[in-house]
Specification:
Helices cover 36% and strands 23% of the residues. By secondary structure, the chain is an alpha+beta fold. The chain folds into two domains: 1-30; 33-213, START domain (Alpha-D-Glucose-1,6-Bisphosphate, Chain A, domain 4, 2-Layer Sandwich), CATH 3.30.530.
Length: 217
C-alpha cells in the first residue's frame, strides 16, 4: 500500500508539473496579446506561411506610432541596442549598449539593411513601412553565428494606432524548422526570447512615453 501510494503521489506531482509547464509555455507565447492580436495576420507572415512555432506578444504605449517608430527603427546591437538586459547579454560577449535617445544615423532605412543581434549574428530587414511595421529575417546556428541555422525565423514589429492616440506594439516571432532536430534547439531559445522580449517591450514603452511627455521647443 505504501508503494502504491508513493507511486500515485509521484504520478500526481508529475502531472501537475507537466500541466504547469504547458500553461507557462502557452502564456509565454502570447504575453500581453489579446485574442485578436494573436489571430491577426501580421506583416511578414507570408514569408513563413506554415511556421512550426509562433509567438505573438504585445504592449500598450501611451505615445503615437510616429513617436514609437524611431525606437523600433534603431533596434540592433550595431544600432541603438535591444532595450533589454544589456548586462546579461554582455556576459556572453554581445557587447551591446542600449541608447536612451533617438540617434537618426542609427536607423534602418530600407529592405536589406542589417540588424545585428550580436557582432557575428545579423538579421536582415525583410519589410518595413515607417510608423507601421518592421520585419526582420534570419537565424542563429549552433556555433552562434548566422550561417547554417537549422531553422528560418521572422521577427515582426507592428505598430497599431488606437483611437485615443496611443499605440499597441505587437511583436511576432515565427520559426520554420529546416531539420528534424531544429525544435530541440528552438524551444529553449524561445523561452529565453520570451524573457528578453518582455523586457524589450517595456524598455521601448518607457523610452517612447518618456520622450513623448517632454515638452517640445
Amino acid at each position: 500500500m505504501g508503494l502504491m501510494r508513493g507511486l500515485a503521489v509521484g504520478a500526481a506531482i508529475a502531472t501537475a508539473v507537466t500541466g504547469a509547464v504547458v500553461l507557462v509555455r502557452r502564456a509565454s507565447l502570447r504575453w500581453g496579446a489579446s485574442d485578436d492580436e494573436v489571430g491577426m495576420a501580421a506583416p511578414g507572415d507570408h514569408l513563413l506561411p506554415r511556421p512550426d512555432l509562433q509567438a505573438t506578444r504585445a504592449i500598450s504605449i501611451d505615445a503615437t506610432p510616429a513617436e514609437v517608430w524611431p525606437w523600433i527603427a534603431q533596434l540592433g546591437q550595431n544600432r541603438g541596442g535591444l532595450y533589454s538586459y544589456d548586462w546579461l547579454e554582455n556576459l556572453v560577449g554581445v557587447d551591446i549598449r542600449t541608447a536612451d535617445r533617438i540617434v537618426p544615423e542609427l536607423r534602418v532605412h530600407a529592405v536589406g539593411d542589417v540588424v545585428n543581434l550580436a557582432p557575428e549574428v545579423a538579421l536582415s530587414v525583410a519589410a518595413l513601412e515607417e510608423d507601421r511595421h518592421l520585419v526582420l529575417r534570419g537565424a542563429v546556428a549552433l556555433d552562434g553565428t548566422g550561417s547554417g541555422a537549422p531553422y528560418d525565423f521572422t521577427w515582426a514589429f507592428v505598430l497599431v494606432p488606437r483611437p485615443d492616440g496611443s499605440t499597441r506594439l505587437v511583436v511576432r516571432e515565427r520559426y520554420a524548422y529546416l531539420t528534424s532536430w531544429a525544435g530541440a534547439m528552438v524551444e529553449p531559445i524561445e523561452m529565453v526570447s520570451f524573457l528578453m522580449t518582455a523586457r524589450m517591450l517595456r524598455g521601448i514603452r518607457d523610452r517612447a512615453e518618456r520622450a513623448a511627455s517632454q515638452p517640445t521647443t
